[in-house]
Amino acid sequence: MSDARLVVSASPHLSAPDSTPTIMWSVVASLVPVVGAAVFWFGPSALLVIASATAGALATERLFGPGGALRDGSATITGLLLGLTLPAGLPLWMAFVGGAFGIGFGKLVFGGLGQNVFNPALIGRAFLQAAFPVAMTTWPARAASWWSLRGDNLAWPLMQARTPDALTGATPLGLMKFEGAGTGLGSLAIGATSGSLGETAAVVILAGGAYLALRGHLNWRIPASILGTVALLAAALHGLDAARYPGPLFMLLSGGLMLGAVYMATDMVTSPVTNAGCWVFGVGIGALVVVIRLWGGLAEGVQYAILLMNALVPFLNRATQPRVLGARRASSS
Amino acid sequence: VGEARRALQLAEVDLAAGLARGLRSFRHGVHPPEHKELTAGAPIRRMPFPEQVVLPLRQHAGKPARPVVEAGDRVERGDLLAEADGWISAPVHASAAGEVVEIARWPHPDGSHAPAVRIAVEAHSAQAPRPRLVPRWEDLPPGELVEAVRQAGVVGLGGAAFPAHVKLSPPPGTEIDALLINGCECEPYLTTDHRSMVEYPERVVLGIRIMMRCLGVERAVIGVERNKPDAIEAIRGALPRDLDVRLEPLTVKYPQGAEKMLIEALLGREVPSGGLPMEVGVVVQNVASVATIAEVFETGLPLVERIVTVTGRGVRRPGNLIVPVGTRLRDLLAACGGLRDDAQEIVFGGPMMGVAQANLDVPLCKGTTGVVVLSEAECKPAVAYPCIRCGHCLDACPVYLNPQILGQLALAGRYEEMSEHHLRDCMLCGCCSYTCPSHIPLSQLFTLAKAAVRRRERDGAG
User: Is the ipTM of this complex over 0.90?
Assistant: First the structure.
């Protein structure tokens, strides 16, 4: 019985089975079906775009991040999520640049994992939207065969993409906003529409979110409050003027709302730590989404709604501190 | 299956938060794996007397005791070795007959070297019973009853080792209307309270009767976590008809046995921040302490032995043992078959709040509830990741602190700001560290911060 090998550490001497990498990789795992749905609808282009965005994110994290940071899985999530917000026909080099920008300027400049204010995937997307507005809003229509590319994926960097007009189609939100045309709810739920890669599989995304929420890797209050707010506001407006405002189900199932509510807004680093804060955060995102979609200049508002609320998170955290057990209530002091 | 179970447990936390009153629990907290199966069915057995015992003068909260013996003195089991120094202090008695070898510094379970009385135990001694040292309780008025408890050196046996007589003498003007008995034993692995309730329910009830007389209260409630059905049954079978004593089963959750949580669960009262249970009319005492008070009056011997759970995958023969106070860890482990090859960490107390030991010569004290020998597989991982602001620590903290902010401030050394974030209310239960997926040692940071704040306050005042 030698004393030499004893470990001495501070209490508690046990720890819960979850660790930061297991949480991150389970998010990655839950995204696999979503990627699968994207590939099902958009063919090899989907895989290529998502892979390029992820490669950009990973390469940047590897080059400029702390050693071994790839193992925690967070850069993989950023890459996958960014890829899922892109159009299938995007030139691959743009997707790569988006991933690199998201990790570099959305995360590493703040100090790496846990330090960033804004969701890195959305920073990458916002950059792409500002830099390549045409490519980012060129939505491919149904292709001739599953195997054909959905646009000029292989364009050389900084060369004009050769996308023939005949291949493009508008997203359901674009149709609604600019042409006043509706899209069937069934098509929306399963993703048989035009749009970004992850815009198109509401049911698969919800299933992934449910899995994460059950494992405690996602705060269910955020998607619940976002989706609830959008549904309530949309229902109220639809009730006022059904011709002008679409119904709640259309609003819920169209665009990037599902992906945003379930996977982007729930990013632990950039969402509030208090449960009360999460409710406010979610309601704010939901309200902004409705405002931007219905009255803003853009067809889709999820990205900016989340980024705006990200900026408010430190304030929300401070404003929603729970009352310490046994503390005198504020009024008496 | 493990994952599904964990998910269900998490769902239960949320449910409990919504229905806190209905489920008889508190909000927040964590569900560490219990591992009580190692010793929950093991009857309490007596360990043979070791060759020597080492009795530290400080085995309780408050001032260390003052020695009244010298090297070379011969002592009988139960003799006074050191007397209490002031009101918040407790005497120390010889736990075995023998000769005082020395009074010198010796490794202490808190990690320091502290003065202790070392006794060479007489070989082949009968350690015989002897004339009663503690008076009979039946004839004593409350004041003398408390004094007898004090003379017997009884302290809280649940871990904190707060002198029992102090809790039994509320300051004048304090209205106490309920005595709460803590039978939760919410620390994983430990089963001493559990086995005491199963094997000595009458003793527990007698202890409650004596304490109720000391305090002059009409009502006592025993809180036991639902995972001990045999203990609940045994205690219910022994409840007296002439007293208002109830047993209340509680949700299995850590730290259900913390005083504030127990009071919230059983009475729905909130102890003011920085205050004591007495301020809401409650005295809380742990089952082991209650049983010891009864035992002291039954046997007439002061507190010289206690029940200890020796457990964990790193020890060969886990069990619940009656151990003389002052037994060295080395001798206790030998009585339990010794360590396995993969034993990695030895903890005094439970794994959530206990103190890891570096030296096998440390003695067991009055407040040592258990010895947990963790194997390599049971130990926590050593790598820490950056905080990802998941908020799990906020959902775990039973006093609703924000360990995430506190942790950041602690790492930056901003201790004054930590005080503004209610560092004082942290009871170091370890829920935040346990649940943190990045394995940030929050509890440890808060322990250091508290010490730093105390130091600064002292320096500022002086």
Answer: no
